[in-house]
Specification:
Helix content is 79%, strand content 0%. By secondary structure, it is mostly helical. It folds into 2 domains: 63 residues, no CATH class; 98 residues, no CATH class.
Length: 170
């Protein structure tokens, strides 16, 4: 039974036929931002939901990476996540469970992301002529636990919105 479903899904994907009716497919394609693959051959259910989610994730990443502030936001979220993982997962494993392997791996990744974040903050600050206070706040956020998340929520989202609308930052 399971093999039959997998075979049918493979056939549907290969031939590009939609399981849904054309009206539902058109509506679903519109919801997917015009990506026909999103709604067409995936067939709904769990696989369809994953496909739709993946398409939305990719579209969101493209929009985020399209601006300097967006790239800084993404790098900040990665750096902040690695710092939180290092502090609240890897370090307790090292000291409470005697397992230092994760600190080496996560520490290396966090170190690289930290250096990249500092570099991108300085680059964006110079290119967009940030005031010294804003640049220092962004750099300080990189050394505080949860700092990049606060930076993203309070500062960078507003700057990205202003950049999209063309209004000057305050």
């Amino acid at each position: 039974m399971r093999g039959e479903r997998i075979s049918r899904l493979a056939t549907v994907m290969r031939e590009g036929r939609a399981i849904r009716s054309s009206a539902r497919r058109s509506r679903a394609e519109a919801e997917c931002g015009g990506f026909p693959d999103c709604a067409g051959a995936w067939g709904g259910g769990t696989v369809g939901a994953l496909a739709v989610g993946t398409v939305h994730l990719i579209a969101g990443l493209r929009a985020l990476l399209g601006t300097q502030i967006g790239r800084l936001r993404l790098l900040g979220l990665l750096e902040g996540s690695s710092f939180v993982l290092l502090l609240f997962v890897a370090m307790p494993l090292k000291y409470l469970a005697g397992r230092p392997e994760m600190v080496r791996a996560v520490g290396m990744a966090h170190g690289l992301l930290f250096v990249a974040f500092v570099f991108v903050v300085l680059q964006v600050a110079f290119e967009q002529r940030w005031p010294l206070r804003r640049a220092l706040a962004a750099l300080a956020a990189s050394v505080l636990p949860f700092g990049p998340f606060v930076l993203d929520a309070r500062l960078l989202r507003g700057l990205e919105t202003r950049a999209e609308t063309g209004t000057a930052p305050a």
